[in-house]
Amino acid sequence: MMLSESLFNNLVVIDNNVDWKNLLRESKSQSVTPIVFGNLHYLDSIIQVPEEIKAEINKAVETKVMQNIRVRHSHGYLHKLMSDAGIKYCILKGVASAHYYSQPILRNMGDVDFYVDRKDVDAVKHLLFDEGFELDSDDGGEHGHHMVFRKKGMHLELHFEIAGIPKGDVGELIRGYCTDIIETASETTEEYVTYNNPDAFHHGLVMILHMQHHMTIEGIGLRHLCDWAVFVNSFKNNEFSELFKDKLSSVGLWRFAVIMSIVAAKLILMPEQRWMGEIEISDDTVEAIAEDIMLGGNFGRKQGSRKYESLTITVAGRDGKNKSKIVRMFESLNKIVVGHWPIVRKITFLYPVGWIYFVLRFFILLLVGKRNVPDFIGSFKGSDRRSEIYSKLGLFETKE
Asked: Which domains does the chain have, with CATH numbers?
């Protein structure tokens, strides 16, 4: 497998009948094109790649790498801005994830996610406004855990809470683990970009929270799995288990961390480690999770039905508890309402008004042709299938 060769230097055997066009299309839907084809010259020495598709591949890789360079530049721009202002921060994902790749520039970049203490949020807002950024009202403006700022060529996400933390005691314990995420970060310079890089524990915790959060909504693709795999593979012997097992077990995420590592070993041939045999998981479940990753693509882009399926997926959500489809549906509606009308957090009687307004708005947009007609029955069945798969993950389930 070409990802395995690129990520772990595994020797691969390539079939002479490779459908290069389909492989390129799949790599785009999974947001891993530069990683798959970054070593095209080496691959071409093993098997002859048709010239017409080689040009298309090179163009796709070049386009993504140039985007990666621009986003990396944005990370460096943010670091100078924050450092000059004396505001402490650390990066979430982005270059922090790319740091674990042998060729960081090949890791696809989207935007710049950074974390600050809540007490510094107003100062950062004013700093960004002074730099010409605007708060993105189309993205709902202020979310429960971050704000989106844009100006030409830059997309910054200011986080004041880590995404994916559930409510309740488990959530408070996770927040406790995150209290020193900024203090333990270190200034890192690579490929001409300087940024504040979280330490290994906090980076791993952010990634595992991010993966479970998106998996149970629109889904995750190979890019997320590659990020996780190269991070896990950076540990030797039992180091990973020693760093993560006790803390992740205390918040019901160790099982998920191990399962995703097993899936990475199966799907992209990540080298296995001893601790991966500590939990019982059937081959069928591993296959189902791998298939779910491949079917959805990066953030579910391969299946438009994913966003509708997520409305009624019944595995543990932000409160860390399993609930019925009806309850989940109303919780999803609440999230839509809050995303557009943040004021409802304070004026709660507006929630029912929002339910009616946004449901009617959706159907009006359907009638005028501004929304594609969704397959509600298929989405309902899809949520059942995905709920059954995700129930095996034991998300936020603790012994207490």
From this structure: 2-300 (3.30.460.40), 307-386 (no CATH)
